[in-house]
Amino acid sequence: MGRMSATSLDPAIAARLKRTPDGLVPAVAQQYDTGEVLMLGWMDDEALHRTLTTGRCTYWSRSRGEYWVKGDTSGHVQHVKSVALDCDGDTVLVKVDQVGPACHTGDRTCFDSGLLLPAPGQ
Question: Which amino acid positions bind Mg(2+), per UniProt (predicted)?
């Protein structure tokens, strides 16, 4: 957990977070104007601090063990419009302006091809 010790996250915000045992909180990215749920990523304190202060979504990659800024490789940037913590303090909602697809597959959202049950009336 060395990455957790050196963060500049506001202590008042850090105190509100309820993290997983590995120090992470899920972060839902939502398109700010259409309401589309784009993706789910993971943030630790430092990733949240970077997201709050840079205007770009920064996540912690559990598989690679490193920070990644959405769009640095793909060009599919997430410009942060607002950040909110849910009532339990265990999930972050980041409203963004997504440039291009959000999903690494090229789909607009990570949920485009995963429909398990159609909406009522469809």
Answer: 86, 88, 90
Residue 3 structure tokens: 């990455």
Q: Dihedral of the CA atoms 75, 110, 69, 24 (nearest 10)?
A: 180
Q: On the CB side of 119, how many CA atoms lie within 13 Å of its CA?
A: 0
Whether residue 87 is annotated as binding a ligand: the answer is yes
Is 57 annotated among the ligand-binding residues? no
86 is in an annotated binding site: yes
103 is in an annotated binding site: yes
Which residue carries 């839902």 as its tokens?
Answer: 28
Q: What is the pLDDT of residue 1?
A: 39
User: For the residues 5-10, what does the mean pLDDT come to?
Assistant: 80
**CA–CA gap between residue 20 and residue 76 (Å, rounded):** 28
